[in-house]
Design a protein that fits this description.
218 residues; mainly alpha; Methane Monooxygenase Hydroxylase, Chain G, domain 1; 0% strand; elongated
Length: 218
């Protein structure tokens, strides 16, 4: 019975990792859609959000089945609890990626060539954080998880700088204000994704060490 439970738990984690890989790819594609003004690609990402939502529901149901059938305790219970939270966090990232794609559609339709924030730099750093949290989950690497947590402050700083950049651009080119505000929204979504990637990394620490490190220096 215990061996079968462990197999089911590992299958849960594998499914979560598979969804995380999909979300990670779509994040990259959504930023490419912004940069390339690719309306069609952005719309495809938006349509794909329903798939992520359904996968999240399916995995949650599997987690609840494991809890009901096997009544895990100690480490096994901790793993299932972490899996439930990670599953929800990854779905939230999927929603934010869809939001970025929606902004990409608006920018593509605007006819404005310039997006006045270094969104590519921010996105690259956020993608690195998300990839790091996923690798940390795959390998149960606590040190990698801690490194991901340390990167969050840099994303916050870059996002905060964006407000000043946007204010200057609006003053110079007021007719482009709608595009500038869309760019700022994308920056905010990326900042939120970084926060969730940090949450995932904190969940890895909880999974391995049993420590809840939210609101603490890790």
């Amino acid at each position: 019975m215990v061996r079968h439970m462990h197999r089911e738990i590992e299958k849960l984690l594998d499914r979560i990792l598979s969804v995380a890989d999909i979300v990670q790819l779509r994040l990259k594609q959504s930023i490419a859609a912004v940069v390339e003004r690719d309306r069609r690609a952005a719309e495809e990402i938006i349509r794909g959000d329903a798939e992520i939502d359904q996968l999240e529901v399916d995995i949650e149901e599997e987690c609840l089945k494991v809890l009901a059938l096997y009544q895990p305790v100690a480490l096994d219970l901790r793993v299932v609890i972490a899996a439930l939270k990670m599953n929800n966090d990854i779905e939230r990232i999927g929603d934010l990626v869809s939001n970025i794609a929606e902004r990409a559609v608006t920018i593509a339709d605007s006819g404005v060539d310039e997006v006045p924030l270094n969104l590519v730099l921010i996105a690259e750093k956020v993608e690195k954080m998300l990839a790091g949290s996923i690798r940390a989950l795959m390998t149960r690497d606590v040190e990698m998880a801690r490194e991901v947590c340390k990167e969050d402050a840099e994303i916050d700083r870059l996002h905060a700088e964006g407000y000043g950049i946007i204010s200057e651009k609006i003053a110079k080119f007021p007719t482009n204000v709608s595009v500038y505000l869309e760019a700022l929204s994308i920056s905010r979504y990326l900042e939120r994704i970084a926060d969730i990637a940090t949450n995932l990394a904190e969940d890895v620490i909880y999974l391995v060490e049993g420590q809840i490190v939210r609101h603490r220096q890790v």
